[in-house]
TrEMBL record:
InterPro entries: Thioredoxin-like_fold, Thioredoxin-like_sf, Thioredoxin_domain. Residues 58-71 have a biased composition (Low complexity). PANTHER family: GLUTATHIONE S-TRANSFERASE KAPPA, THIOREDOXIN-LIKE REDUCTASE RV2466C. This is DSBA oxidoreductase. May be required for disulfide bond formation in some proteins. Keywords: Signal. CDD domains: DsbA_family. Residues 1-36 form the signal peptide. Residues 45-56 have a biased composition (Polar residues).
Amino acid sequence: MTLPNETTRITSGVASKRRRSVLVAGAAMLAMTLGAAGTAWSQSATPAETSASAQSEARATNPSAATPPASEGKVDVAKLMAPQALPDVVIGKADAPVTIVEYASMTCSHCRDFHSESYPAIKKDYIDTGKAKLILREFPFDPRAVAAFMLARCAGDERRTAMVDVLFDQQRDWAAAENASVALLKIAQLAGMSQDQFKACLQNTELQGKVVAVQEAGQKEFGVSATPTFFINGDKYAGAMSADEMAAIIDKHL
């Protein structure tokens, strides 16, 4: 499996339909292969969670030092925020004046880099202060990304964000692993899933279909063709952004 270099792009039409069947079938195969590799893990650690410990009053971002990228257009915010095949999980205050919708793939290296390098600063300066909220939507590019998103959903809405964080943090361990089932099982068990729950999650064809449906809606309705793609109060930005660049965009909406 090849990880993306900068942004990962997809094609439409017949290729897109063929890709849907590959994504769904591939995710199911991960569950099937577990039968031959099902190993009991005895680790007792829990997923990393964002700490609310006291932090310095200094800003984590410096928007005045950045030149934000130009928007690639604007979408209807009401349509963007309409119910999806899977319910949105909001990070931050629901009434925050700035809404960031991110379409990401769990196997996208630049999505991983955003969440490890830029997101903590954006969270500190804007999400934790009630100025912005973040919604991450599924846009898988391969069966392993489908499986990872499914596991995050099976963890429950209250733990989905922490599960996504762990999957991004450990992306190098499972996304290119020879046996993705074993690597993902280890992460799932750290989140409290049993081996049977893990297998049942990945064999849930209804959930598979909903994950892919969110991806297809992003592509067809909002023109998403690369990950990460961000919509900030409806303005579209495709590709990775630094924390300072995103902060400069957010400030324009405050």
